[in-house]
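Something for you to look into today, if you have time. Could you write out one complete protein record for me, on any chain you like? The space below this message is yours for that.
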Amino acid sequence: MKQVIVVRTDLKMKKGKIASQAAHASISAYEKTAFLKKKLWMSMGQKKIVLKTNYLEILIDIEKKAKKAKIASSIIRDAGLTQIEPNTITAIGIGPDEDKKIDLIIPKELKLL
């Protein structure tokens, strides 16, 4: 069981902003996850992997694939109060779910943040 968060780096957000957007993505996706998957993930150490991309389209594609695979996901749109424009998509959280299921929808070329 794991959770994956993908953050856009093309927006040139500062470190604190990136951390807050990743946290929003993690919590939001977790809240959408089925109870038994949440419980299992919590008992296994809450593995999280944070990846980066320069392309909004990657986040949109991941969201579509997650929905099709019935994996909880959450696109994060910033309120625009500090560094970026309102309603800008900054990140996505996927899972927690089975590693194999998540691996099928995450592009292999994405690197660790």
About this structure: Residues 2-112 form a domain with the Bit1 fold (CATH 3.40.1490.10). The beta strands are 2-8, 48-53, 73-77, 89-97, 111-112. The helical segments are 15-31, 35-43, 56-68, 99-103.
